[in-house]
Amino acid sequence: QSDCVSGLFAAPAGWFPLSVLGPGRALLFSKVKLEAIYKGPDEALETCKHMLNMWQKTYISQFSDWDKESSLIEGAQIDKRSTLQSSVGEGTSAEKRSTLHPGFHEGESGSQRVSSVAASRMEFAASEVSAQSTSVKNSPKHMSIILEQIWLQAAELFIQLQRTKEASFCIQEAASLFSVSHDVMFMRGRLAEVSGNLNAAKHFYDEALAMNPQSAKIMEHLGRALHKLGRSSLAEKVLRDAVQALSTSHEAWNCLGEVLQDKGRNEDAAEYFLTALELEASCPVVPFTVIPREL
Prior knowledge:
Blueprint: H1 2-10, H2 24-38, H3 41-63, H4 66-88, H5 93-100, H6 111-130, H7 133-136, H8 141-160, H9 164-177, H10 182-194, H11 198-211, H12 216-228, H13 232-245, H14 250-262, H15 266-281
Helix pairs in contact: 2-3, 3-6, 3-8, 4-6, 8-9, 8-10, 9-10, 10-11, 11-12, 12-13, 12-14, 13-14, 14-15
């Protein structure tokens, strides 16, 4: 397992057999998740940027009548890019840091500066793809699904970096493709939760769960939001549904333990905490189901 992880890290993003439509896509998404855990979200954003660029090249080469429409698209790109860059990249880099990272100053260095650089590069790639949003919305469904997944993965990384403005932008781009997607609703809930708006988070998780009622991940986050809102009994019910839907979810077991601990049921809570620890020890970073099979 360690050799496989090392191999993914060592390989540059451009190494994968690439079209974003092929098996390389699953490897790239796995690479992003591994980088986020072992190297940090800023490193993973670089791979997301590369995936956006790949998507754009694939779209142009396979699904766009580029020769006939290049002049029209170029004009649209110039107008829209200036609008997008003013909204996504508003102000100077120093202003963005002070707004999104209250304790960050120009003289500081380290991971925060790296994060800002990676985020800026990601924003540039985002504006390049988003500049074609009119034609992108009319792209084949499988291409739109892939682009939605890239946007939402980038949103998750920005949330981890506490860059809620950029996360919101990525979610909006995904929503422009599939406004009623349960993945989009879930990510809206994530953004609301980290922003401290628990009622809005609950609303979005409820919407996502209505669309995908078997998702243990959605149930776990809904249960967590309910617990924070002081609705412990409902939180317990939702979390029990989560562990029933996916008994190997250590996050759901741990959250259920927290709820029971707050209710004074310490013996049950301890049992669930131990279950969570045991499951976490064998939990893969990325579900094995994402790995494509060649028969």
